[in-house]
Amino acid sequence: MKLTTREYWLYEGAPTSPLIANMIFGQHEADLVEEYIRQEITYTRFVDDITISSPRKMEDQKLGSIIRQIYGMLLNKGLQPNRKKQKVYIGAGRGNVHAIITRRGRVHYEKSRRKQIKLEAYNLLKSAEETGRDTDEYRSRYNSILGKLSMMRRLHPQEAQREIDKLIEMAPLKGA
């Protein structure tokens, strides 16, 4: 398999990210999902954010076993889980993973996260007026923000597309 990157790096929200994640996790993930279905456990993955849910409270031992299985899958694929981001929610409230909210079967970005991304885009466009669009720093920030907007577009297509259209008008210039 040949993967195209920019300096060995994929920006956040790249359109290829879900496909790459599916290729990486493959059959190992499918086997886990089958096992969890038999146990009435729901396994959900959005690119690299994994959520486990159950209609009833899990025993600590059971929850620990599931977490170990998932971490084992990640480590087996050469991925390093970020244990600081691991959260356990108990109850019927909303789940929140990287500002992505799940509630009553719906998924969306937190309003504050959408506002933050739009502000980053606005600030980038303002800085372009002052410093230009031909620097490596501008190009890097542009790609990062475009990636965030691409991710946001999956959940809030119209809102994100308006920002993407503004950003594309101020694409980095060739040079630097």
From TrEMBL:
Keywords: Magnesium, Metal-binding, Nucleotidyltransferase, RNA-directed DNA polymerase, Transferase. GO terms for molecular function: metal ion binding; RNA binding; RNA-directed DNA polymerase activity. Transmembrane segments: none annotated. Residues 1-124 form the Reverse transcriptase domain. PROSITE patterns: RT_POL. InterPro entries: Reverse_transcriptase_msDNA, RT_dom. The keyword Magnesium applies. It comes from the Bacteria. The keyword Glycoprotein does not apply. This is Retron reverse transcriptase. The lineage of its organism: Bacteria, Pseudomonadati, Pseudomonadota, Gammaproteobacteria, Oceanospirillales.
